[in-house]
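User: what does the whole thing look like in 3D?
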Amino acid sequence: MLEQLITNYVVDTAGVDASIFRNPDVKVSELGMDSLGLVEMLFEVEDRFGFQIDDPMRFQSMTFREMVSDIEKQVREHCNGEIPDIESLDLKPEVE
Amino acid sequence: MSRVWLTGLGMISPLGANCQSSFDAALRGESAVRAAPDELNEGLPGLLMARVEDEAFPDLGKQYAGMDRAVRLALVAVAQAMDDASIAVSPDNGDRFGVFVGIGFGGAQTLDSMYTRSFSRQHAQNRRRATVVHPLSVPRMMANATAAAVSMHYGLRGTSNTYSVACASSAVAAGEAMRAIRNGYLDAAVVVGTEAMLTRGSMVAWNALRVMAKPFPADVSASCRPFDRERSGFVLGEGAAAMVLESRECALRRKVSGRAELAGYGSSSDAHHLTAPSAHGQVAAMRRALTDAELEAGQIQYLNAHGTATETGDVIETESVSEVFGAAAGRLAVSSTKAVHGHLIGAAGTLELALSVLAMESGSIPPTAHLHDVDPRCTLDYVPLHPRHDCRIDAVMSNSFAFGGSNASLIARRIAV
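Assistant: Here's the predicted 3D structure for the full assembly of 513 residues, as structure tokens:
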């Protein structure tokens, strides 16, 4: 679910070509997002789960999958070991 | 020194989605003033405002979805003005093409929603931390966010300046852009005034200042009544108005015709009072604009007044216009279109100059709406209630007088053939 959320953001909002995800080992740095783009992407997760992800720049040296599992780990730490279901927990982003 | 031509106009206002629809509504005296929606007037009964209708506001796409409302309004107006001037993205002279923005309260909507969100989370016992806000909150609320967006979108790499001079912001932006082109620093510039501060936070502040109009009992939309005995203050509006300015040589090279010449700009500071106007400062701004345009007062046929419908403002502006125009004041048509579009603060200068140019082009002068009972201290011809058609207008003046005592007057004239 988290992977889908992040992938959707990368493709729909950041405008990255979806075909790049055919490579399962694609690196975060290969997505062509600058540092602002990266923190905007992380905000998709932060906004829903209500905490700030540590040290975003370290993701630049990870693969996309490694980044997703790292984020998952952090979400679990903040949510009693679970990944809350976005739909059922009313964790949609707030309208600004 | 180059003459400066106005080659494109654009507008999104409470009156309409573009220049023509806004101007037509102004001519009809059709007011966009309404009661504020419930979420804004809790504890502020009788709050009024002039909003840009949702259906007038085109979707700019996801790229711009999170930007401040003032930035998005500006982008709409600039797109119209650039289109009107037949200028596409990345013009050849991008290095000599500037961006001049006027805005009173940059980032108002971004700041307001950030505070709302942070405070409401602080007091809600859920897992969301009050400190988690959008990472682009700062660059979205900075006053020059509009200039940045316009410059990047169009590839304009000349001077990119933002003027925050309260109610005179975009008049000053237009005047300074004109000077930059006239003096050869730039070939062209897009000028945009924009404002979007109809937020809870700014409305409580404006309400506290006690300058806002009270609802007119017979008709809420007629609550802003410049120069009328029953005036009670102004109504905040929102929107954006843009103009493309270029040197005459640049326009001729591109084989485009100018809609008008931006011929005069005068500015002054009252050095007097934080909010009260001063005839002395206003007179200086208008005289400097006339000198700059090399025109006599009697050569101006229409003046779009600052005309906010505060008692002091109406009376002082009448005094200062009378002093500057002297015997010619009797032949001058003066109207305040704020009666129908509200006070757009930072956007007021370009919006009202644009309406004045449209009046010059069409020969039709928009009235001062709702002016049934003129304050006897207001002695000019305010074009009450009804538009005036078939007028020969060769030059127009637009006044913008700001809190803080900053005054700006602009003059546009027909291009001599």
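In plain terms: Chain A touches chain B through 17 residues (CB under 8 Å). Helices of chain A lie at 2-13, 35-49, 64-78.
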